[in-house]
Structure formats: structure tokens, C-alpha cells
Design goal:
alpha/beta, TIM Barrel, 2 domains, 14 strands
Length: 308
């Protein structure tokens, strides 16, 4: 792969466990991961050639990224699957104070580096909690589900980018989507459209998700929030393989669904093609949150290993 000029590098987040390389590459379906003297082939779900960037990963190798969607090994060992799963788990910091959030982050730091800040925590702790997480080197998914007049949404997205949030969510109204994309600065934050809350029971969920995916793709949105069910993820892929999918409503095998209606296990969601999973209560409310996180990562790795 021939290196391109450094100034054409895509903006990727620097973090505690990785750093952006200034050497992007023109790639097609396949990229590579260097690990010692070994090379593992990675394939991106989108077949069209894109400009990607090389990034040092958690384990000293390099991984190629395209926008919000990850690259996966074509032939995945168990260790590969665990590594990928660990990076694709987002823990929902659904707590009522900065102190509680910091305590959970400290407990989960050995396994989790991507955290969701939602309405409860953002209202209680404000932008300072996002700044603290980013300052500590963590990735932040700012799940505010913005819905307002276009000017306000655009300015809010720009403010989220200045805070260092990697992802922000908006409602799937055409004017909101366009304003959110227009508010990005240097390609950040990534904007994800909410298709349908996983607490809603819906007989035609896949059709509704497909409609939102069409709107999102037409506006230049980076991805969708959808349930981790094959029909919903498949609906997104049918519209645009380049859209990333973040899946909430995840419940480990044998656990209660609670107020969620369209749920999936970690293994099933990853097998269906989810890019990231958001998990909150099954980890937060466990007797040992770190052990619960490791169990979920193991289930995710199982799903990745068995994916077609």
C-alpha cells in the first residue's frame, strides 16, 4: 500500500490506548494489522476504496479505520476476537453524579475505554464529566438525542466536538440531521441518528430503521442507533454498508430484559454485524462490575468468532 501525503490524514481520536499515525493509506477491501513479525489481514465491511488512516492499537499493532466502522480480521483467532470485542464495548455511565461515574470508570478501566454519557449524567455533572473522561484518555459517546431547531442543533454538535466527544446522537428529523452534519468541525464528533428506541415494541421495526438509514445516508450521517437484531442491522446494511451501527438494549444470556423490548445478547448482536454495543445495567448493577464486563466481552468475542 502506497503512503499518501501526511496532510491528507483523516482526523481520528487520540486516546489512552492508542494514537493516530500521520501516515494514511489508500485501501480497498483489505488492510493489515502488524503484530510483532506477524500480519493479520483485516477486511472492512464496505468494499469501495476509501482513504483510511493507520492507527496504533491497544496491543502495539496497527489497525485501519474507516469513519465510525471498524476493520475486522478475515480469519479471527479467539485472541483477535477478544481484542476486537473489548474495543467495541461501550459502558453506559447511567448514574446521577460525577463521583459515581468516576468510581465506575476506575473499576472498569482494565477492560473498558469507551463510555457513554447520557441525559442523566450530563444533567447532573455537566460538560465537565466529558472533559474529565477525555482528559483521562477515554472515548466518549455523548448520547443526548438532540432535537431542536437546526441552528441550535448545529451549534450543540460543534460544542460537543470542542469537548472532545467522539460520538453524539440526534433524532432522525431531516433538518436535524443536516444541521448536525453541518456542525461538525474537522469531521468530529461522529453523528449517529436514533432510529427507534429499544424500549419500544414495534412490529415493523426493520422498515422504520431502513427509512432512517436512507435519511442518514443522504445527509452524510456516520451511523445509526438500532437494536442488535439481524433484521434491523441487516436493514441498515442493505441501505448503506458504510453506516456504523451502535446497539443498545443488550442483555447477556439469561438476564432479564427489564424495560427493554427489542433486546439481543452480546453474541447475537455481534454475529448479526453490530459495530459497537452499549451495555449499562448488566454491568453497573452486578456484584462485580469488572467480572460482568469480562463476561460480556467473552460473549461478544464468541459472536465475532462465529460470524459469517
Amino acid at each position: 500500500m502506497k503512503p499518501l501525503s501526511p496532510e491528507r490524514s483523516l482526523p481520528l481520536p487520540s486516546g489512552r490506548r492508542g494514537r493516530t499515525s500521520p501516515f494514511p493509506f489508500r485501501v480497498g477491501e483489505e488492510g493489515g494489522r502488524c503484530h510483532g513479525d506477524a500480519m493479520t489481514t483485516f477486511r472492512h465491511p464496505s468494499a469501495s476504496p476509501r482513504l483510511c488512516a493507520r492507527r496504533t492499537d491497544d496491543y502495539g499493532g496497527t489497525v485501519l479505520h474507516l469513519k465510525g466502522r471498524p476493520w475486522y480480521p478475515v480469519v479471527m483467532t479467539h485472541d483477535d476476537a477478544v481484542d476486537v470485542a473489548r474495543a467495541r464495548l461501550i459502558f453506559a455511565l447511567d448514574v446521577g453524579s460525577a463521583a459515581e461515574a468516576r468510581e465506575l470508570v476506575a473499576r472498569l478501566a482494565p477492560e473498558i475505554s469507551f463510555f457513554k454519557v447520557g441525559l442523566e449524567l450530563f444533567t447532573a455533572a455537566g460538560p465537565a464529566i466529558v472533559e474529565w473522561l477525555v482528559g483521562e484518555g477515554y472515548r466518549v459517546f455523548l448520547d443526548l438525542k438532540l432535537l431542536d431547531i437546526a441552528t441550535t442543533v448545529g451549534r450543540a454538535v460543534a460544542a460537543a466536538g470542542r469537548l472532545g466527544a467522539e460520538v453524539i446522537t440526534v433524532h432522525a428529523e431531516p433538518a436535524v440531521l443536516e444541521a448536525a452534519v453541518g456542525g461538525k468541525v474537522g469531521g468530529r464528533p461522529l453523528v449517529f441518528a436514533v432510529s427507534l428506541l429499544t424500549s419500544e415494541a414495534c412490529m415493523n421495526a426493520a422498515d422504520r430503521v431502513a427509512k432512517v438509514a436512507g435519511l442518514a445516508a443522504g445527509c452524510g450521517i456516520d451511523g445509526l442507533i438500532a437494536a442488535g437484531l439481524p433484521e434491523e442491522i441487516g436493514a441498515v446494511r442493505a441501505v448503506s454498508p458504510a453506516l456504523a451501527v451502535i446497539c443498545p438494549g443488550i442483555r447477556p444470556a439469561g438476564s432479564a430484559a427489564g424495560d427493554q423490548r427489542r433486546v439481543a445478547t452480546p453474541a447475537a448482536a455481534m454475529r448479526a454485524g453490530a459495530d459497537y454495543l452499549v451495555v449499562g445495567r448488566p454491568i453497573r448493577d452486578a456484584d462485580d462490575p469488572l467480572a460482568a464486563a469480562r463476561t460480556i466481552i467473552g460473549e461478544m468475542a464468541e459472536g465475532l468468532s462465529s460470524a459469517g
